[in-house]
Amino acid sequence: MAEERLTQEERELAEFRSIMEEPESYQDGMTWVALVGALFIGFVMMPASIYLGLVAGETMGAAAVWVTIILFTEVAKRSFVQLKRQEVYMLYYLAGGLTSIVGVAALSGGPFATLIWNQYLANSPAASSFAADIPRWVAPPAGSAALVQRTFFHPDWLPAIFLLMAREVLSRMSWFGLGYTLFRVTSDIEKLSFPLAPVAAQGATALAETTGKEETWRWRVFSFATMLGILFGIIYVAVPAVSGLVLVRPIYLLPIPWIDFTAATESIFPATPLGVGTSLGAVVTGMVLPFWVVVGTTMATLGSVLINPTLHRFGLLKQWEPGMDTINTVFANQLDFYLSFGVGTALSIAVIGLGKMAANWKTARARASRGVPEGRGDVPLPYALGSW
Question: Measured between alpha carbons, how far is 5 from 10 in angstroms, rounded to an integer?
């Protein structure tokens, strides 16, 4: 039985590893095209994403990534220039990295919105009792010309801006350092498969092939998925946005982000958050993930439907009250039980992972001793850990 299970696991891993074959040689994708793309993201896409976050409460997200890539590939085709797959993927990585760096901060105005919040707090009535003790590197003092003129271009803002920039630089160093180290461990030594990684790689490959007048099945799939996303976006986003401009209340053909059944089913399943997500992205992601990952997630979701009423009956979920929606129910359950349960689960998974690494230590050392592929641009691990 164990041998059959092992064979099934190996078969699934081989299936995902065969989607994208490991290249025999590597080329540098950090060219002037990628640099111009990064500047385009920083000066055009990022301000647009911040503006969208302030106006509509949504960010451009992955749209900024693919819009940038499509724009550059179309410009390259009309300039009779063929983009390499490495350049296209570098554009994808740079655009994705820049959009993820802002992330939720775009909803409130970008990274500098933190400074606006700090100066508001420092000069608010709630902080009047200790406002004199707030240091200058948090926000300018009350009555400062920087606050009166409502501008960041003032010397009083320099300490706070310097600390903000230093924090961003140090956090990127930590992110890249530890991220690269974990990449080396999981990809080169443990040889783990990443189901969602081929999706981005295949999309970049499809766009790179179009610049060379070579269209394969990848481009057909990419085009079909794009049109499907546009149609769904019209129903999911455009209709509420446009109707909200002319009507008192916007029209939602599909509730955003889910259909909430928690209050309707609380008599049968108390303290149980129930809802159906309306985003097509989750459905498409489920088609890419391994079968048993989807099965495990489904079983865990259904298990919570049965476990939560039992926990509530035994008095472990105390803060839940009838009438709570999904968000408040999840928050109350997290405080009562699932926060500590998640910590224990994470620790147990860490122990299991360390145990498996110790058991496979010889194999891991043999893989690590082979070195890194030539031309991939790897840096020594001590430098990466030092950056972290």
Answer: 9
Q: Domain span at residue 277? A: 255-373
Q: Where are the alpha helices (DSSP H) in 212-338?
A: 217-233, 239-246, 280-288, 291-313, 326-333
pTM score: 0.66
- Total domains in the chain come to 1
Structure tokens at 102: 């802002």
Helix axes 32-40, 62-78, angle to 10 degrees: 130
Q: Could you report the per-residue pLDDT of 204-231, keeping only the tens digit for each?
A: 777 777 766 666 777 888 888 888 888 9
Residues in contact with 105: Cβ distance below 8 Å, sequence separation at least 6, in sequence order: 111, 113, 114
Mean pLDDT of 308-321: 89
Q: How many CB atoms neighbour CB 59 within 10 A?
A: 21
Question: What is the DSSP secondary-structure string of 164-225?
Answer: HHHHHHHHHHHHHHHHHHHHIIIIIIS----TTHHHHHHHHHHHHHHHTT---HHHHHHHHH
